[in-house]
């Protein structure tokens, strides 16, 4: 279009439309045309095959490095640099030797296959023959070797293709990067409001890093309404060049996720994404079955999701969740074929595998169709690798994932008014306005960036501009001149702070005038929040802090309910009434819940076999160890029978060793206590408060010689303090245990079973009842009063819950450990309160 506009401006009525090709595309087409013309020209490598060749060369040449696979692209860039600047191979440094070795391996690979690498322009250009109809535009100053080779095939260079015009130059400093990107988007909006036919360019050098910020800023300023609707009838107003790695597009991520699950390369997070993906349909309407299976796996603490583990899990899924989720597990594993095969065979099998999993689903939009087509192309490139190399399924999926990660793709957007790019190259065509962001002193001109695989001295001697600060300065000046030549208005900007580091404008911006406010003044609100606020419905403030009353006699949730109510009224309402619990996150290793079950069950067995203090002391160390070990082994066997997936045998053995150690430490401290009889273990009791009842399980109740009782609650987590006198009881279960046990209670305590020692936390009528458990001090209420106060506090808590109270009334500490911020909106509430109570500073 730019070429046509230029022709029209020159008064031409008829002209041939040019083919506009990038450098690589031009080389590939030239090679294909030469072959089509009957010349003896080797086939060119497909992009995937070229990438694979360089990756394998990097594996050999850089075998001593940590991640040699990631160096393939860098070696290819360095090889191109050598060709562009006629640099002779060097063995001065280890990196230079690695480059020579990689080049040799790639050349040998090409020779063996009878192909040519599409980046190997020194071999390709002579094969293309004379190219007198070709013009090169927008390349800046060409490296000397490439310029000479192009001249030999009659390619002409179009210098300064845009017609220079005097440009208005403005500069704008912004508080931070988001503000800078928002300003650029507002400027584009203002320009389009005044002249809808404008074509604008926004240059963001670190676009990949700030891609989501740019998208948000442009969407909000240029098309706020599009954020709230799904149709794009008017077409997009902006496009980002370059695109994202194909693997990050949700459609492709779902396909790769399903393949990784089948190949055993997925972790739990990847399996969870597969089970919830809208692009995978496992043979029937499984949209909810997948989510339910995901939730169940989380509850069961299933962390290993290899095919073997899923196969083991299948009968339990069928038994506990029914046939539909079990069939879903079958589909996750369907179509697996062991053994090795060529890449072309794997490409075919991958297509079949994805079809079995219902990928890509139905009703794809235009952008998704394009992503799918690009993924199919990539599968075609995998197939083009042929029968060699021989790959296992894991290798094939790994290779496909790597290929998808290094291909960048953006669905086509047609001709859009605003283009966002990270390219610092000559824009070539004329834009009505160009905004260049991120021109702060520390980043513009960019610092010297010599190639790590070519000796620095060689790069400096050849005067490669990127290798030195002076060269980068020259390139920066050249880029600025090109931008100014290609527009009638240029705005440059910088952020005064980024990541808490303050910055200045680049010294190259001194010739620019400070931007005036009307440069970005738009006729209507530009940001989404303002747009939505302007269209808000008339609302009436209504304070609603109470839900329906709880009328059932039984309270839900046991002592955990008391803890929730005490911590926050809203949280208790949300979790106990609305079931808004956090999804469990399976962790590697032994699930903490299983750890707790093991210890509790082993201690229960031990105290059933050890009725009192005398029996405890009657055993010598060996006898105690034997008894504890037997109890732990029996409890472990029962825990395995109950769990969805047997724990890893080695870890489980270690966990049992740990449990034995923990129990021995507890028993050592119990031996030094006053005599006691174990009256009850894992005893179920009903506590009634304010007319409502709840079931409690007491880990242990001991009777002492004076007839009083102590209650012990085992804890396997980190030791926490117990404040018996707090207005909001942080551990209300201890007071609840004290109350439910009836009269004659002399102590209540938690025993934290730690790796080093047992720590006791609680309160007693006098010291010495339990190791380290204090009695009320002289200044504190005596024990009977404490029990009375606990009764009142717990009754009030239950009463509060029963009325349906749901105020978000937690402390900051409780909020830090809560998952409900988005539901209770405590942060907005606190902000509103802070704003209301904010006193303006005195002038
Ligand atoms: S975030 Fe804080 S206020 Fe909100 S529910 Fe959780 S604990 Fe309560």
Care to describe what's here?
With 843 residues, the protein is α/β, with parallel strands linked by helices. Helix content is 47%, strand content 12%. It has 31 helices and 22 strands. A 7-stranded parallel β-sheet has the order 7-12-6-13-14-5-17, covered by helices on one side. It binds iron/sulfur cluster (SF4). Iron/sulfur cluster binds next to helix 22, helix 29 and helix 30.
Write a concise keyword list for the protein shown above.
843 residues, seven-stranded parallel β-sheet, 31 helices, alpha/beta, binds iron/sulfur cluster, disordered C terminus, elongated, single chain, 47% helix, five-stranded mixed β-sheet
Please tally the β strands and state the result: 22
Biggest β-sheet: strands ordered side by side in the sheet: 7-12-6-13-14-5-17
Largest sheet: 7 strands, parallel
Structural class: alpha/beta
- Overall geometry comes to elongated
What is the mean predicted local confidence, pLDDT?
A: 89
- Rg, rounded, reads 36 Å
Helix count, DSSP H or I runs of 4 or more residues? 31
- The amount of beta strand, in percent, is 5-15%
Distance between the termini: 57 Å
Helix content: 40-55%
Low-confidence stretches: 839-843
Quick summary:
The chain has 843 residues and is an alpha/beta fold.
Write the layout of secondary structure elements.
Elements: H1 2-9, H2 23-36, E1 43-44, H3 47-61, H4 72-84, H5 94-113, E2 115-116, H6 121-128, E3 135-137, H7 144-152, E4 156-158, E5 168-174, H8 177-194, E6 200-203, H9 207-223, E7 238-240, E8 244-245, H10 250-263, H11 268-276, H12 287-299, H13 307-321, H14 323-333, E9 341-342, H15 343-356, H16 366-383, E10 390-391, H17 393-406, E11 408-409, E12 418-421, E13 433-436, H18 456-461, H19 469-485, E14 489-495, E15 497-498, E16 501-502, E17 513-514, H20 528-534, H21 558-567, H22 569-577, H23 592-609, H24 613-618, H25 621-642, H26 649-671, E18 676-689, E19 692-704, E20 709-715, H27 733-740, E21 745-753, E22 758-764, H28 783-802, H29 812-816, H30 821-824, H31 826-837
Parallel strand pairs: 1-2, 3-4, 5-14, 5-17, 6-12, 6-13, 7-12, 13-14, 20-21
Antiparallel strand pairs: 8-11, 9-10, 15-16, 18-19, 19-20, 21-22
